[in-house]
Give the backbone structure.
Amino acid sequence: MCGIIGVIDRRKEPMDGLRIKKALSQMNERGSGEGAGYAVYGVYPEYKDYYALHVFFNNIHETKDALDATLEQWGRIVHDEEIPTYEQPNLRKTHTPWRYFFKPDKKLMAWSKSPEDDIVTYLVMKINAERKGSLVFSSGKNIGVFKASGWPEDVANFYRIEDYAGYLWLGHNRYPTNTPGWWGGAHPFNLLGWSVVHNGEITSYGTNRRYIESFGYQCTMYTDTEVVAYLIDLLVRKHGLSEELAVKALAPPFWDEIDIMAPRQKMVAKALRLAYGSALMNGPFAIVVANQESMVGFTDRIKLRPLVGGTCGNRVFVSSEEAAIRAMEPDIEHVYMPRAGEPIIGKVIP
Amino acid sequence: MTIDANGMNYTELNTRLRAAVAQGIDEVVVNNVLGQRFIADGLKGNIRITLNGVPGGDLGMFMSGPTCIVHGNCEHAPGNTMDGGSIIIHGSAGDAVAHSMRGGKVFVREDIGYRGGIHMKEYQEKRPILVVGGTARAFLGEYMAGGLIIVLGKNDGEPVSERGIGSGIHGGEIYIRGNVQERYLGTGAAIQPYSAEHRDRIAPIVQEFSKALGMDPQPFLDAEFTRICPMSSRPFAGKYTWE
C-alpha cells in the first residue's frame, strides 16, 4: 500500500509545494514512514536548458571528486551546489543531496538522434550501476525530485518543499513491502523528463526487467518501480508511441475483450499485445507517469489499487484518494473514478 | 451535538463519538469531514451520525447498530465487516464497498467501484444488504457467501457492464436491473429465474432505499431484474484437491 498524488496546470501556471504537502500527509496511513518524495516540473527556470542532476552522496569526501570527473569527461558542469536541507527530528540524514546543472557534449555521441539525452541516460545508468556511493535520482531539464526515508511531512520540511514551485507535481508516500526502505527506493523515480510514482507491485518485474535491459537500461534501485520509468521512456521517447498507446501496451485489455472489438481496434490491440508482450505489467498497481508535457495515471487491468481523477479549471488531479484531491483543491469541480486500465490524462495546452 | 472535524485526526473524532454514545446522545452531526478513516469503527449503540464531507476508508468497520448518513462520497470499503446498523451515502463510493459485511445495510445513491460486496456473508438472522442506485464495476459480489446485493441502475446504460459478477459466489443473491450479459458472469455464478416471489422480496428494501435517499421507488418497483445466484456452495471444491 502506498499513497500517490499528482497535479498538472495545463497553462503551466506555477504552484508551490504547500498544498501537495498537505494532501500527501492526508494519506499518512498509506505509508510507513520509510519513504516519501516529490517531483516538480518547471522548478529551475534559470537553468532550464541544462540537465538538473540530483545526486545522493554517501561520504561526500570520498565520492564527489570521482563523480565530478566522470561528468567532466562527458560535458560541462555549469553549476553545482548542495541541495538545502533542514534538520528534522524524525529523519536521519544518511545521504547528502546535491544538484548539478549539466551540459553534455553532444559531439561525443554524434551518431545519435538525441545525443544529449543519450549521454545523460548512459551516465545515470553507469553511475548508479557502479555503486560507488553516488546515486543520480533525478536527471531532467527543469525538473527536480526531492525524496528521502521518512514521513511525507518530514521529507517536505526537510527540503522545505513549499520553497519550490512548478506547473506539475507528483507526490508519493511509501509503504515498502518487498524490499527495505531506503533513500534511493523512495519515489518518485525519474529518468530525463520522465517521473513515476507507483502504488502496488509489478509481479511481472522479472520479465519486464529482462526486456528493458535488452535495450541497455539497467535496474539498480532494488525496486520494481524504476522499470516503469524505463518502459515508458522506451515506448514513448524511443519508439514514438502516444501516451495512450503506451498505457494500452503496459496494461492491455484481456484477449476475450479483444475478441469482440471492432476490426480496427482489434488489430491495434492485437499488434500491441504481440509487439509488447514482455512490457505488459501484471500485478496490482496504480501509477502516475509525468513528462514535461503531460501527466498520465492508470491502474492494472483488474483495478487492484485505487485511483481517483479530478479537474478544476486548467488543473488535472490524480490520487489514490478523493480526500487528498479535495485537500489540495477544496473547490474541485469534477471528481471521478476511471475504469481499470483507462488512463487519466492531463496535457499542457500548447 | 455538532463536531467540527476540520483538521481533526480520526482517533480524536472516534473518541468523541464514543463519548457521545456513552452520554446517551442519539444524534451527532460532524462537519468538514475530509479523509478521516475508520469513522464509527466498532461503534455500538443507536446513535445517528451525519457526516458532511468525504470520510476516509473503512467507514463503519465492525460497526454494530449506529446509522451513518454521509452527505458526500466515500472512499474504499464503507461497511467493511459491519455487523449491524446502516450506512447511507448520498454520493458514490470507492472499491470494496461492504467488504465482508455480516449484517446491516449499506445504501449508496450513486455508483460504486470494483469488488462491491466482496465476501459478504450471512448467518441465521444476520443478512447484510447492499443497495446501489447507479452502477457497479467489475467483480461485484466476488466470493460472496451470503446476503443480498441490489443494483438499481437509475441512469441510462447497463448497471453492470464489466466482468466477474459473482466470481466464486457460494451464497447469497445479486439482483441487477435489466438484462445482464452472460459474459459478465464470473466463475460459479448463474442467472436464475426472477419471479413474483423475488420481486416481493426486494420490494420493501427498494422502498426503504428510495425513502432514505429521497428517490421515487416506482421505476425500480416496475423494472425487471436479473437474479444471479451461486451454481453450488463449493465452486472451487476441485481446484486445489481432487478425489
Remarks:
- Residues 36 and 56 of chain B are 5 Å apart (CA to CA).
- The mean pLDDT of chain B is 96.
- The longest helix of chain B spans residues 196-212.
